[in-house]
Amino acid sequence: MSLALEEILRLPGLAQMTVRAGQRNLQRRVRWPYVAENEGIAEWVMGGELVFVTGINHPRGEANLLSLVEDGDAVGVAGLVILTGGSFIQQIPPKVIERAEQLGLSLIEQPYALKMVVVTHLIGTALVQMAQARRSRDDIIGQLLTGDYPSLAIARQRAAHMQLALDEPRRLVALRLAGDEVFEHHAPEQAERLWQSSQQALEDCLQAWCRTQAGAVTAQLPGDLFVLLLPDVPNLRGGLAQLHQQLRVIAGDAGVYLGMSCLAEDCAHYRQALNEARQALDVAQHLRPASGLCDFSELGVLRLLQGISDRGLIDSFVSQTLGRLIETGRKHPYALLHTLDALLGANGNALQAAARLGLHRNTINQRMGRIEQLSGQSLDDPLFRMNAAVAMLIWRMTAAQGKE
Q1: Are the C-beta atoms of residues 77 and 51 closer than 8 Å to each other?
Q2: Cα gap 359→371, rounded to integer Å
Q3: What residues does the Purine catabolism PurC-like domain cover (predicted)?
C-alpha cells in the first residue's frame, strides 16, 4: 500500500517539511521511508521510496547530493528529503535544487530539529492505516461484487462507514493485463519480475486516475482482475479511452483490455454487473478493439463471435463484406461505410440517414447506388443488411477505425 507524497506532507506534525523542487510530481506514491546511510543509493533502493539524507554517516557535499538526485531519478524514488541544520548539511546547494527541478524529482527540506524518529513513525503509521483501510474497502467491495456477504444491510452499513457511496447508479469496468507475450518472450525469472512490476504500475495508475474522477472507486479482486466502479457521467467512454492510452504505456509487452457493464442501479446489482463486465472483457481480449474497451450493452452477436478461435476468419468476413466500400484513393475513404452505418441505424430510411449525416437526399441516393455497385449486393436484401450490420460492429471496434 502507498500514500501520495502530497498526502504525507499534509500529515499532522510534518508542517515544517518544505518542498524545494519537483512540486509538479507530488502525486507520486510513497511505499516506505528509507534513510540513506551509504555514499550512493542506486544499489539500495528499488523505486517508490521516500529517501532521507541526514549527512550523519557520510559527508554530503554538493557533488554527492547531485549524485543522489541523479540516482534517485534514475531508480524512480518517490522523493528525496534532505535534513538541514545542526552540524551536518547546513543548506541545500542551489545547483542541487535546480537539477532536481529539471528532472522533476520532488526535493524536500527537513529541519534537523524535526526528529527522524518522529517523521518515520508518522509516515509508517499512516502507511499501516492506509493498508488497513484499503483491505477493509476491498473486502466490502469484494463481497458486493461476488454476492458473498452475510447481509446486504450490513455490507451497506460498512460501505457507509468507509464513506463509499455505493448506492448510486454505477458502471463496472473489469480490466486485466494480458501477459501471454511477457511469459513467452522472456525467461521465467525476468518475466515474473516484469509481470509484478507491471501489475503494481497498473494499480498505481488506476488509483491516480480515480483520484481525478469524482466518485470513482477501484478495487483488486483475488487474482489479476481490477475493477472500477464509476458514476455514469457524460463522455465516460472518452475518459476510459484516455485511461487505456495511459495503461498501454505501462503495460509494455503485455496488452491491457477493459470490459464495461450495463448500468447497475445500486450495490445490490454489482454481482450481475461484474458478470457482464467480465463477459465484455473476454470479448475485448479476443477481438482487441482499438479503444481497448468493450461495452456489454453493445455486444450482442459479438459474444457468439468470441467462440471463433481463428481471428483470421473474422477479419476475412469483415473484409469480404465491407472491404470494397473503402475507397482509399478518395479524400474521405470511409464515406460509404459511414453512409451504410447510418442507413442500417435508420432501418434503411434514406431521409433519416441523410439527416443523421447532414447530407442532401440526392447525395444519400448516390452513395446508396455506389454501395450496391461496389458490393454487388442490394440494400433491400435482409441477409446483406444483417451481414453488413455485424461487419460494421466489428469494424468499429478494431484498429481499422484508427485509420479514419
Answers
A1: yes
A2: 16
A3: 7-126
Q: Where does residue 85 fall: left (phi above 0), alpha (psi -120 to 50 degrees), or beta otherwise?
A: left
Highest mean pLDDT pick, 17-21, 138-142, 362-366, 393-397: 17-21
Domain-wise residue ranges, the chain = 3-123, 168-304, 311-403
Counting other chains too, the contacts that 9-16 makes at CB distance below 8 Å and 24 or more residues apart are: 9/108, 11/122, 11/123, 11/126, 12/122, 13/118, 13/122, 14/114, 14/119, 14/122, 16/110, 16/111, 16/114
Q: Give the CATH number of domain 168-304.
A: 3.30.70.270
CATH architecture of 311-403: Orthogonal Bundle (1.10)
Do 92 and 82 contact (CB within 8 A), yes or no?
yes
**Contact status, residue 39 vs residue 111, Cβ threshold 8 Å:** no
Nearest to 123 by CA among 65, 51, 73: 51
Domain 3-123 in CATH 3.40.1390.20? The answer is yes
| Ramachandran angles phi, psi of 32, nearest 5° | -165, 160
**pLDDT the model gives residue 404:** 43
Confidence of residue 253 (pLDDT cuts 50, 70, 90): low
For 300, residues 6+ apart whose C-beta sits below 8 A from its C-beta are 393
Instruction: Give how far the C-alpha of residue 221 lies from the chain's centroid of Cα atoms, to the nearest Å.
Output: 16
**How far is Cα 67 from Cα 265, in angstroms, rounded to an integer?**
55
Asked if residue 400 has pLDDT above 50, the reply is no
Report pTM.
0.61
In angstroms, the CA 25 to CA 80 distance is 12
3-class DSSP assignment, residue 382: helix
Q: Which three cell numbers stand for residue 68?
A: 543522489
